[in-house]
Structure formats: structure tokens, C-alpha cells
Design a protein that fits this description.
The protein has 332 residues and is of the alpha/beta class. The protein has helices at residues 15-26, 56-63, 81-99, 132-147, 171-176, 199-210, 234-247, 258-264, 269-276, 279-282, 290-296, 304-314; strands at residues 6-10, 30-35, 47-50, 68-71, 102-107, 153-158, 161-163, 185-187, 194-198, 219-223, 227-229, 252-254. The chain has a domain at 3-165 and 196-230 and 283-302: Rossmann fold (3-Layer(aba) Sandwich), CATH 3.40.50. It has twelve helices and twelve strands. The strands form three sheets. It has a seven-stranded parallel beta sheet with strand order 3-2-1-4-5-6-10, with helices on both faces. A three-stranded mixed beta sheet has the order 7-9-11. A two-stranded parallel ribbon has the order 8-12. The chain starts with 5 loop residues before the first strand and ends in an 18-residue tail after the last helix. It holds the Pfam family Epimerase.
Length: 332
């Protein structure tokens, strides 16, 4: 086996982790993944190992012989970030140092506070977050940079809010609409320009950067442009167009009931954490992909309506279109 093309994906049952795992396999990589339950899924071409990202021995054992570790695991529903996130990245770092492997981390804009939004965000923009989750994300990146001086390599790909076929744990799948339900209305949280990223495009970007990893510095950050929604309505209007074409109805666009979030926040962790991130929807937050384009030549980019339609189908909000069956003419 060529270990230079063997990767461990942590979080492969989730949206971005699963997409990266699939695209690595398609690019000829041997892919391993951890999950807590027993059993294998040989049909997907992934070598599943039983284990937990919170268990250092499990991660170290699964990473043996791997050149890349994709760290795409997060506590579900925003719960216990302060207790779980840093121990998980520390386990990944320990395994990567032992294997001299490259860690790939999907980055977020949580790292930035409002002071950074006065201009387009480049990779060296100051990270002064206002939230607990933002502070934790800053610590994660600091630990990765330190690890890059101790034998590991680190690659951070920062993108906007996710949409995609398996983006249920996202603003698109939880706040704007409800996964598994027909779209009758659209809750739009944006009050200013906002950046979105289609999961398959993010995964493709990571795979293409990994193919060039030996030419990169030991610690690198890259920003994606994705889909820039200049007025905060373009994603919602794309959902309208797709649903109107597919279902013959035009769902209404409304706002997000932030007052309800505030009332329920003391009793609901997810709503409390989503409310904390409201500031990201109130001011334009835009990243520059200039550095990424210099390295790759372009950014993988799926047209907006195509990305939205695939997302709605994957989330169970639209039925998958089936090609019409050919009608066989009767024999003479």
C-alpha cells in the first residue's frame, strides 16, 4: 500500500467529513474512518474502524501508516464544545506527530470578531472572537500551528456557512428550512452580505490542496470565496426558484424569530449557541480566495441553483428526479 495516499477521516459520518472521504476515495486514496458502533460498510470503499475521536489510543491506532488525518469531527448540536473540542484536536495532533502526517481542518469564521469585518478577510486577518466557540476555534488553530513545528503539518481550509446534500447540522438545514420537510417557507437570517460554501466544492478544494501538500509550508491557511450573497437574499431566492420549478409553488421568504431564540435559549443549547452567532448575520462577512487561486489556479465552484437543488434533494426537502422511462412501441 502507498502510505502517501492513505488518509484517516475523523467525522466521516458527517457532512464535510463524509464528502471529503468520498472524494479522497474517488481520487485514488485509501481511506480509513472511525465510528463508535461495530460493523463495516465495505460497499463505500472506506475501511471503518471502531473507535472514538475522544480516545487517544483509538485515534493513534487508526492513524498508523497514514499520511493525512482529516479532522472533521465536532460535538453534535453545539453541545459541550468547551469539554470536547480541544481534547479531540489534541488526540489528532498526537497521532499526526507520530506519523509525521498532515492534518486537514475545515475552518470557520467563528474565529473573527466584528473588528475584522471592516474589510475583506485574508488569511492573516486578526482573530479576536467575541464568543466561546470562536475562542475555542482560535485555540485549535494555534495548537495546529505549534504542532507544525513538532513534526506534523497542518492545512486549514476556511469557508462560509455550509449547504449541501448532507448539511442538516447547519443554518441551511436547520434555520432556513427543515430537513425532511417540504419547503413552504424560508427563514432567512441574513441582514447583510453573507458567504456560503457548497460541501462538495469544499471537499474538492481540500483534495486538490492535499495533492500539492509537499509544496506547501508546514502550516497553511486558505480561504474560499464559495457563494457570496451580496444582499443576504440570494440563497433564499435560489431556494424559491428551485422549489417553484420543481413543485410549482413559490415559498415565502421570512426572517428568523430571534426573539423566540432568546426566550428558548436558557432551555435549549442549540438555540443558545445559534443566538450567540447572530452577529455574523448582521454585518457583511466576506473572505478573499486570492491565495487559494494562486495555488490551484481556480476555486472549485458549482453554480448556485445546481448546488441548492442538490442540497434540497439530499436533505429530503425535494424528491430526487428520476429520468422518464422510454415508451416501447407495440410490435406491428
Amino acid at each position: 500500500m502507498d502510505n502517501s495516499k492513505t488518509a484517516l477521516v475523523l467525522g466521516a459520518t458527517g457532512g464535510i467529513g463524509g464528502e471529503v472521504a468520498r472524494q479522497l476515495r474517488a481520487a485514488g486514496w485509501q481511506v480509513r474512518a472511525l465510528r463508535r458502533t461495530a460493523g463495516t460498510a465495505a460497499a463505500d470503499g472506506i475501511d471503518w474502524h471502531r473507535g472514538d475521536a475522544l480516545n487517544r489510543e483509538d485515534v493513534t491506532r487508526a492513524a498508523e501508516g497514514c499520511a493525512v488525518i482529516v479532522h472533521a469531527v465536532n460535538p453534535p448540536g453545539y453541545r459541550d464544545w468547551d469539554k470536547l473540542v480541544l481534547p479531540m484536536i489534541d488526540n489528532t495532533i498526537a497521532a499526526a506527530i507520530a506519523q509525521r502526517a498532515t492534518i486537514v481542518l475545515p475552518g470557520t469564521v467563528y474565529n473573527f470578531g466584528p473588528d475584522a469585518f471592516a474589510q475583506v478577510l485574508h488569511e492573516d486577518a486578526p482573530q479576536r472572537p467575541l464568543t466561546k466557540k470562536g475562542a475555542i476555534r482560535v485555540q485549535m488553530e494555534q495548537r495546529l500551528e505549534e504542532a507544525s513545528r513538532r513534526g506534523a503539518r497542518a492545512l486549514i481550509v476556511r469557508a462560509g456557512d455550509f449547504l449541501g446534500p448532507k448539511s442538516g447540522n447547519s443554518w441551511f438545514g436547520q434555520g432556513m428550512l427543515k430537513a425532511g420537510q417540504p419547503v413552504r417557507s424560508i427563514g432567512n437570517p441574513a441582514q447583510a452580505g453573507h458567504q456560503w460554501a457548497y460541501l462538495p466544492d469544499v471537499a474538492r478544494t481540500m483534495v486538490e490542496l492535499l495533492a500539492r501538500r509537499e509544496a506547501l509550508a508546514p502550516f497553511e491557511r486558505f480561504h474560499m470565496e464559495g457563494h457570496w450573497d451580496a444582499d443576504g437574499r440570494q440563497i433564499a431566492e435560489a431556494v424559491q426558484r428551485v422549489v417553484a420549478r420543481r413543485e410549482g409553488i413559490t415559498p415565502k421568504i421570512g426572517g428568523i424569530p430571534w426573539w423566540l431564540f432568546r426566550l428558548a435559549a436558557p432551555f435549549n443549547v442549540t438555540l443558545r449557541e445559534m443566538l450567540e452567532m447572530r452577529y455574523l448575520w448582521q454585518r457583511p462577512v466576506r473572505m478573499s480566495n486570492e491565495k487559494l487561486v494562486r495555488v490551484l489556479g481556480r476555486e472549485p465552484h458549482t453554480p448556485l441553483d445546481e448546488a441548492v437543488e442538490a442540497s434540497l434533494v439530499g436533505l429530503g426537502c425535494l424528491r430526487e428526479e428520476r429520468p422518464a422511462r422510454a415508451v416501447t412501441a407495440p410490435s406491428p
